[in-house]
Amino acid sequence: MLTRPCWVEINTRNFEQNYSFLSTLASPQVELLAVVKANAYGHELKICAPAVVRAGARWLGVTSVEEGIEARRLCPESRILVIGMAQGQSNEIVRHQLTAVVWDNWQFDELEAAARAQDVRSVPVHLEIDTGMSRQGAEPGSLAPLLERFHRGSPLRLEGVMTHLFAADEADEQNTNAQLERMETALKQIQSAGMQPETLNIGNSAALLAGQAIKISALAGRYGMNTLIRPGLALYGLVPQFDPDFSSDEPASLGQARIHLHPVLTWKTRVVSVKSVPTGAVIGYNGTFVATEPLRLALIAVGYADGLDRRLGNHFSLLVRGRRAPLVGRVSMDQSVIDITDIPGVATGDEVVLIGQQGGEAISAFDHAKAAGTIPWEIFTRIAARVPRIAT
After folding, report:
1. Would 346 disulfide with which of 40, 102, 261, 340, CB 3.0-4.6 Å?
2. How confident is the model over 5-39, as pLDDT tens digits?
3. Looking at 19, 236, 275, 285, which residue is catalytic?
4. How many CB atoms lie within 10 A of CB 214?
């Protein structure tokens, strides 16, 4: 059956090559965890997880147990980190050999009970430390009761220690340095308690591209640990924007990333029909656009229910026949209208690009984000499930 002409193409070769490039930025002591949470940032887990494993990834990162179970089905040999376990999910974590991030007593209670019920002797976990984001994680000053949970009779094994860097995209690195200092305080306490976790799990795309892997790896080395860094956005071909921008002393790795990282996702639709309207014609809901001259318009099969931000009406352009065509009128639920007056030959069935390249023009998720007042992560993950993802 033919489907509605609105779809996303996922370039798996670019995805694999992006992972390979990012691996070159890491030292031999640094391993990368491929973040494929939120349905692989909207790119589709069932496409991206196997692709990044083919590229050499040993670790996958997801938010939910549900995604962890699906990732296990797709990649049976992978290590899978569940960053946000919820109550009542411990049995599935143990059953599917997922690795949970823990920081609260109830998580220890549930995982221990699940392991004993399933007669599992060793369940690896990563203990999260709140080093300043105040979102999830144990406070460095109150670790002692949690560390006591890793006693000889417990099935839980402290495999890793992790944190979230909340400002790795700030060029001056002050916040990141302060977080790493807090992490070192926690690691000293863990070491003093007689524990030797294997892995220090810190960092994202911005940290890796800004060269912070060196200091993270050095911190891990002081405590006999390996380093695990969790790239997300860069895997999908976008270079994080730093605030404020680096000056002339930009890290070489950041410049290399702009050359070697390639977008993975292209979002497309088609022209459904073409019509001409006279001066004074009202276009779209509430008449937010009124033609000041005769226009040729194309109706396209994409709207806000597909993930195209409603705020882009009258403020953004899409690509058709390699040229920019302004969105006119409000974006509707399932349809939008573009002005093709200055683009000769546009006809029903022509391909329209929302994100991607056509001819010599390109539109990025950053372009969408700037126009909508948001971030590219939201642009990707907002693309609706009803929009099919096709591996290319």
Report:
1. 340
2. 999 999 999 999 999 999 999 877 799 999 999 99
3. 285
4. 14
Judge contact between 175 and 126, C-beta under 8 A.
Answer: no
Q: Any alpha helices (H) in the chain, and if so which ranges?
A: 12-24, 37-41, 45-54, 65-74, 90-95, 105-117, 144-147, 174-192, 205-209, 213-222, 252-260, 365-372, 376-382
CA distance 27 to 227: 9
| pLDDT of residue 248 exceeding 70 | no
What's this model's pTM, rounded to 2 decimal places?
A: 0.94
* C-alpha dihedral, 325 to 327 to 332 to 335, nearest 10°: -10
Q: How far apart are CA 237 and CA 14, in angstroms?
A: 8
Q: What's the CA gap between 35 and 84, in Å, rounded?
A: 13
Q: What's the Cα-to-Cα distance from 227 to each of 31, 53, 197, 211, rounded to whole Å?
A: 6, 19, 11, 14
Q: Give the C-alpha separation, 83 to 314, whole Å.
A: 39
Nearest by Cα to 171 from 233, 228, 251 = 251
C-alpha torsion sign, points 109, 113, 116, 118: negative
> Is-catalytic flag, 188?
no
Q: How far apart are CA 66 and CA 84, in angstroms?
A: 11
Q: Which of 37, 41, 236, 304 is catalytic?
A: 37
- 223 in catalytic set: no
Instruction: Find the radius of gyration of the CA atoms of the chain.
Output: 24
| 261 close to 236: Cβ distance less than 8 angstroms | no
DSSP state of 242: P
> Which of 320-339 are b and which e, b meaning 16 or more Cβ less than 10 Å from the residue's Cβ?
bbebbbbbbbbbbeebbbbb
Max CA pair span of the chain: 81
Residue 121 above 70 pLDDT?
A: yes
Domains of the chain and CATH, by start: 12-260 (3.20.20.10), 265-391 (2.40.37.10)
Collect all residues with Cβ–Cβ distance below 8 Å to 52 and sequence separation of at least 6.
15, 16, 19, 34, 36, 60, 235
**353: β partners:** 268, 319
